[in-house]
Design goal:
By secondary structure, the protein is an alpha+beta fold. The strands form two sheets. Strands 3-4-5-6 form a four-stranded antiparallel β-sheet, with helices on one face. The protein has a two-stranded antiparallel ribbon with strand order 1-2. It has one domain.
């Protein structure tokens, strides 16, 4: 009796192609998740830096207002940008923009609120990583000294 001995020495091409397709799908999904996660981290970091810049402007405003008796000389739209006195905002060149060194440029602005004495709108805006214009605004009100 003659019997054929059949040997299986490895995987077929179909099995290899199925494995490659499964691995490719998993790697593509992982890449998408990592990419979205990195974008969210970058957006969060830029937002935190913007809030720090804005908080610095509010603190500069508070310190400045504590040293003056009248605010009549304040420009309509100004910033401090590290200066102890207000700097009127100009657009050419933009003098109230600061960079974080990593790509984002923050535009700072402080404006007295119309109709509300001693109230200031402090804002910062920047272009986010996805190209959208993002802004953060604080309102600061000075309370009269009752001494």
């Amino acid at each position: 009796m003659l019997t054929k001995v059949r040997r299986q020495a490895g995987d077929t091409i179909v099995e290899v192609l199925i494995c490659i397709a499964v691995i490719s799908t998993v790697l593509t999904g992982a890449f998408i998740v990592v990419s979205k996660s990195n974008r969210a981290i970058q957006n969060s970091a830029e937002h935190a830096q913007a809030q720090q810049r804005l908080q610095g402007e509010v603190e500069s405003l508070r310190a400045y207002l504590a040293t003056v008796t009248t605010t009549s000389g304040l420009p309509g739209n100004f910033c401090f940008k590290g200066s102890p006195v207000p700097v009127a905002i100009t657009t050419t060149p933009p003098n109230c923009e600061v960079s974080n060194g990593g790509g984002a440029t923050y535009s700072l602005s402080i404006t007295p609120v119309t109709g509300k004495s001693d109230t200031y709108e402090c804002s910062v805006s920047w272009d986010a990583i996805d190209g959208k214009k993002v802004s953060e605004t604080y309102y600061y009100q000075v309370y009269p000294n009752k001494s």
